[in-house]
Amino acid sequence: MAGQEQQEPFHRAPVYRARRILIVGCGQLGSSLSIRLSDSGNIIRIMDNDSEAFDLLPERRIETARIVPVLGDGRSEGDLRRALAGESDIFLACTGSQTINLMAAQIARNIIQIPKVICVLEDLEVAAIFEKLGLESISSRKIVADQLFERAMA
């Protein structure tokens, strides 16, 4: 048809339901992860037993409740419940302590029954044991080794 512009088809981006995510550990890893997950539209609660750790979070995200800091101990069922762990879709244990991560993840998975629990571990043997028990884990050593291998072989 002469004189009419052809319009480009309208494409909608996929719509995902915002996930409710509880992160234990507000160090460099936990804080940067909370920001990235918040950028994706998720509802984030982040727990640490040191209130100064929350200084790593952007004030605006806290003011707008896009990231909600919760002072508490990830090894305490009561503190996890106070952080609304029972309403969480995903639980991430990423403190600097493998022991704390394991305890918190076990409580989240087996007592509170959060559907998806991921735990940061350093010991690959411990990670293998917990994977057999249904706990997902991430090992920074394995990730670094995999990346080094890939780059060396490229």
Description:
The protein has six helices and six strands; from the N terminus they run βαβαβαβαβαβα. The protein is of the alpha/beta class and 154 residues long. The protein has a single domain, classed as NAD(P)-binding Rossmann-like Domain (Rossmann fold, 3-Layer(aba) Sandwich), CATH 3.40.50.720. It has a six-stranded parallel β-sheet with strand order 3-2-1-4-5-6, sandwiched between helices. β5, α5 and β6 (136-139) form a beta-alpha-beta unit.
Q: What key phrases describe this protein's structure?
A:
154 residues, alpha/beta, Rossmann fold, 6-stranded parallel sheet, 6 helices, 6 strands, 19% strand
Describe what is shown at a glance.
The model has no long low-confidence stretch (mean pLDDT 88). This protein has helices at residues 28-39, 59-63, 77-82, 98-111, 124-132, 140-153, and strands at 20-24, 43-48, 67-71, 90-93, 116-121, 136-139.
Helix content class: 25-40%
Order of secondary-structure elements: EHEHEHEHEHEH
Biggest beta sheet attributes: 6 strands, parallel
Strand order of the largest sheet: 3-2-1-4-5-6
- End-to-end Cα distance, whole Å, is 53 Å
Q: Which regions contain 5 or more consecutive residues with pLDDT less than 50?
A: none
Radius of gyration from the CA trace? 19 Å
Mean pLDDT: 88
Kindly name the structural category: alpha/beta
Overall outline = globular
CATH superfamily: NAD(P)-binding Rossmann-like Domain
Give the tally of β-strands. 6
CATH topology: Rossmann fold
Number of domains: 1
Under CATH at level 1, the class stands as Alpha Beta
CATH-defined architecture: 3-Layer(aba) Sandwich
